[in-house]
Each structure stands twice: as structure tokens, then as C-alpha cells.
Amino acid sequence: MRTFVTMLILVALSQVISAQNPIVTDQFSADPSARVFNGKVYVFPSHDIPTPPEKPGRKDWFCMEDYHVYSSENLTEWTDHGMIVSQYSAPWVDSTTYSMWAPDCIERNGKYYFYFPANKKATGSNGRGGFAVGVAIADRPEGPYRPEKEPIKGIFGIDPNVLIDKDGQAYIYWSMGNIYVAKLKENMLELDSEPIVIQNLPQKGMKEGPWVFERNGTYYMTFPHVENTIERLEYATGKSPLGPFTMTGVIMDESPTSCWTNHHSIVEYNKQWYLFYHHNDLSPKFDKNRSIRVDSLFFNADGTIQKVIPTLRAVGIAKAEKEIQIDRYSALSEVGAKIEFIDSTNTKLGWKTELSKKDAWVRFNKVELKNNYKSLIAKAKSEQNGMLEIRANSLNGPVLAKLNINKTSDWKDISAKLEKYKAGIQDLFVISKSENPVEIDWIKFE
Ligand code: FUB
């Protein structure tokens, strides 16, 4: 009965968000560890928050008090299952430190083990506890999770990552200057070997956030590293989970918005590989309030990883009848098109597309048009009278609708009759057909 009630509460707490990059926009999120459980992708990020007034000393630093978990089947609609572990629910965590950094989660024998770093309650004479790694266990990926009373003995560090090898042996990796690894016992709660430092990684520049996976007999040790001034994602490869590893390449260059950290995970889902990572999209001026993202990742025939270029469009097929955030575009015209926050004082309201010239355009790829839509709706405005054309698949492709945006300084839902169209997955072009500037929040089909 108790489990049933808990499940009902969890369902009631779930919230579905349709999103491109970043994939979570109603709160900050960072350090995404993605896992495939029961045919869905689950993402376990950390959760940045603005500094609370009682912690002014942390104003310029990471501030994190709990974790949420998200899931998706199509990688465009994400369900937030709510908070799973907090600094107040784990008995060993010093709940004044807001230090719930990058976590990971793994399944073994039907149980879900959630690993998270945080500052321990002080025990030493210096009054500081330092970073340890704890575990919380659940019967379902969404929780509820029960935190263990004590952290794992023998780990002093951050950014836990767990690999269960093909022979069933589990390994835990973490960082603290270097990257460390140790075997885990079958119970997933205790170390089964002395920690060792992974050798042959770059000596200079900070390394953290290990994420290890195996593909075709190669073990990929992937990690953020400061080669120049901020982190980029690099990797080394080897033939065993313990190494030796050889430095192999760069997965993603430094953030174009100068986010100092990047932290990632790599996962295969429905025969496609994905890179989950973070930038500071919703907080351009403070890079400790980050947002998680996803893009496709490809391997070369020799097993090396092709560099991933961050996109706004992200992955997956968008549903035409949901609000399509065209500001998460696939391409923009060189002149007359730009993206701005709807309200720069409340970035969580998202972005808008501004088309300021005739023939300026924005392209949004892979929208699934079903049969029988009658109209196209745009949330838009124009200080003078504007006009938009929506076309399928190219700038000269079939016209789907023409929208007149009558002079207004308020956002309006403007509707136009749809022309005959072909159902299926199409790329949409939204094109300005007047010299008067038009702002668009989203479009959708009805
Ligand atoms: O999110 C806090 C810390 O920043 C993580 O633990 C690191 O990997 C870096 O992303």
C-alpha cells in the first residue's frame, strides 16, 4: 500500500517538458548522467540554484542542494519526476554546504544505485568534512531513493561514475585532481580494491567528471579537461576498465558561451549514440547556473569519436501539434534574423526569433506533420504590420500557411488556414515577407 501511494505521489509530481537545447528550461541543471533503463533514457543531472540569502559566501560558486531525475522515450519530451535526494535527506551530508555535485546512477539486479558526491559533516579538528561519495537505492529509476547512512569508505572526491563490465565486475571512477578507479563489491556499496590513479592522462590542467563506457571491446575513458583556459571534453582509450589508456582525442571543444565547466555522459539508445553535456544557456552572465543539453555522437570506422558540434535543435523529431520553439533553430538567414531572450530578467521564459527584414528566415528541422491539421498558429507580434510565410523543406518549398501579423505590441496567438500539405517528417522554414520586423515565440499546427 505504501509503495502504491508513493507511486501515485510520484506520478502526480511528474511534469512533462517539450524541449530542444537546453532540454530543461524551468530550472538550472548540470552534469547530466544519462542511462537507458527499461527502454527509456533517464537523465540524472545535478541542480544548480541561485545562491540563497543565508549563503552569501557562495555567491560566486556552485550552489546545489538536491537532485531531480528526468526521463524520455523520444528525447524531445522530458518528464521531470521530481526531487529524488537532497542534502537534508542524506544523513552524512553537511546540509549547510549546498555541495550536491555531479551524480551517476546504475542498475544491478533490479535495484537502482544513485551515487552522489557532497561535503561530509565535519569530523576532523579542522571543522571540515571534505568531499565523499554516497549511495541511495531505489526499486525504480524514478525513486523513491533511500540514502545510505554513511558514504562509501575510501573515496575522497567528486563526480562518481560506475561501469559494470561484461563479466559483471563493477568499477567506480571519480575525480579529485586526478581520476581514480577502484573495484566495487557485488553489493555496490563498498570498494573491493585500493583506489588507483588512472595513468597517461594529461598532467597539466584540471581533469574531472570521468565517464567510462565500453564499445566493441574498447574502453573509452572520457573526461572534461582544461587544456587551455576552460574545460573541453577529451578521451583516452584502452582494452581494460583499469587501463592502461592512451589519449585519443577531443569530443567537444570549449563552450562558445565560455562556460568554465563542461560535464557529460555518452549513451547508446535505439542504435544511435548521444552526448549529454551542459552549457550556461539560461545564465549567460554566471556560468555556475548551467543547463543540460544533448546532441548526436558518431564513431568513425576505427572506433574514434567524431567531434560533436553543439546545436540548439538538439535531437529527435518534434511534434507539429506541440509548441515548436523555432528559436532552437537548425539554421538562420545570414541577415535580418536573430534570437533574443523573451525577457532577459527572467530567462526561464525562453527565447524568441526576430526577423527584421523581408526574406529573413529561420529553419527548424524534423517536424512530424500528421494528416488533418486545419490551421497554423504562431505566437507572434509586430510593432508595424508584419507578414510570415511558412514553407516545407526549402525556401522555395510548398507554402503551408501565410500569416498576417497586425500591428500589436503584445504577444498574440495568430492563426491562419493551412494549405494542402503532405504528412510526414518535414523541415519548416519561417520566412518574413515584409520589411516590418516580426517577433515569433513559437508555432504549432492544429
Ligand atoms: O557541478 C559541480 C562540478 O562542476 C561538477 O562536479 C564538475 O564536474 C563540474 O561540472
SS summary, helix count: 1
Main sheet: strands, sense, barrel: 6 strands, mixed
Oligomer: single chain
Note the beta-strand portion.
over 45%
Helix content: under 10%
Bound molecules: beta-L-arabinofuranose
Integer-rounded radius of gyration: 23 Å
Which architecture of the largest domain would the CATH scheme give at its second level? Answer: 5 Propeller
> What is the residue-mean pLDDT, rounded to a whole number?
95
Structural class, by secondary structure, is mainly beta
How would you describe what is shown here?
With 446 residues, the protein is mainly beta. It has two domains: 2-297, Tachylectin-2, Chain A, CATH 2.115.10; 318-445, Jelly Rolls (Sandwich), CATH 2.60.120. It is 3% helix and 46% strand. Strands 21, 22, 25, 27, 28 and 30 form a six-stranded mixed beta sheet that branches. It has a five-stranded antiparallel beta sheet with strand order 1-5-4-3-2, covered by helices on one side. The model is unreliable at 1-12 (pLDDT under 50). Beta-L-arabinofuranose (FUB) binds at residues 30-31, 46, 62, 101-102, 158-159, 208-209, 261, 263.
